[in-house]
Amino acid sequence: MKLSQFIALSLSLLAGYASAQDMAPAKLPTPKPGEAVATFAGGCFWAQEEAFDQLKGVREVISGYAGGHTKNPTYREVGTDETGHAEAVQVYYDPKVISYDDLLVGFFAAHDPTTLNRQGPDQGRDYRSVAFYRTPAEKAAIEAAIKTVNASKHYNGTVVTEVVPFTVFYPAEGYHQNYCKLHPEQPYIQSVSMPKVAKMRKAMAGKLKSGV
């Protein structure tokens, strides 16, 4: 079992979070009129959710699973690397306030897109980097962003982010939602998740919500 999975499952049981509601999949929001939806996978979804949630124009972020073949997977199943899914986040945002291109800047800043099937201490296909596109324009934007990141030489390696069409997103269990906010003192959150959030905050200066 991977480090973040062990921590999540242990805390959910030991801290009393294993109620039926917390273990059931979260409910997906209904997009509001004029709202757009984007889906990304960049390692453990706790950090990705917290990072995107701090951006202006983002109403809600849900942690979940995408990119695989198993219907309605559980956290434990995804961790076996047999479902094909990656830990992912679904972002509900106002494109009049923040653009898809801006989300891509934040996405590539908040994780290392050059490490294949790995983010920090977490290894496996479920931690791979993926940008899911819904339209040809989004696909072109992702490909352009990858070229920009590679040309910047910000990372030592070459971007290995998968660019794939969006099919379906399965929300993760309730106890995974808002995990960083609920467990700010947890060692994994402090040492692994929040440094990623800090990277996005630096890259997205001027586009952060007030008070965060």
TrEMBL record:
Keyword Oxidoreductase: yes
NCBIfam families documented for this protein: msrA
E.C. number(s) listed in UniProt: 1.8.4.11
Record has Signal as a keyword: yes
Physiological role: Has an important function as a repair enzyme for proteins that have been inactivated by oxidation. Catalyzes the reversible oxidation-reduction of methionine sulfoxide in proteins to methionine.
UniProt catalytic activity: L-methionyl-[protein] + [thioredoxin]-disulfide + H2O = L-methionyl-(S)-S-oxide-[protein] + [thioredoxin]-dithiol; [thioredoxin]-disulfide + L-methionine + H2O = L-methionine (S)-S-oxide + [thioredoxin]-dithiol
Top-level taxon of origin: Bacteria
Signal peptide: 1-20
Record gene name: msrA
Pfam families per the UniProt record, alphabetical: PMSR
Active site: C44
Coiled-coil ranges (or none): none
Family membership: Belongs to the MsrA Met sulfoxide reductase family.
Name under which the protein is recorded: Peptide methionine sulfoxide reductase MsrA
Molecular-function annotations in GO: peptide-methionine (S)-S-oxide reductase activity
Segments forming domain Peptide methionine sulphoxide reductase MsrA: 38-189
UniProtKB keywords: Oxidoreductase, Signal
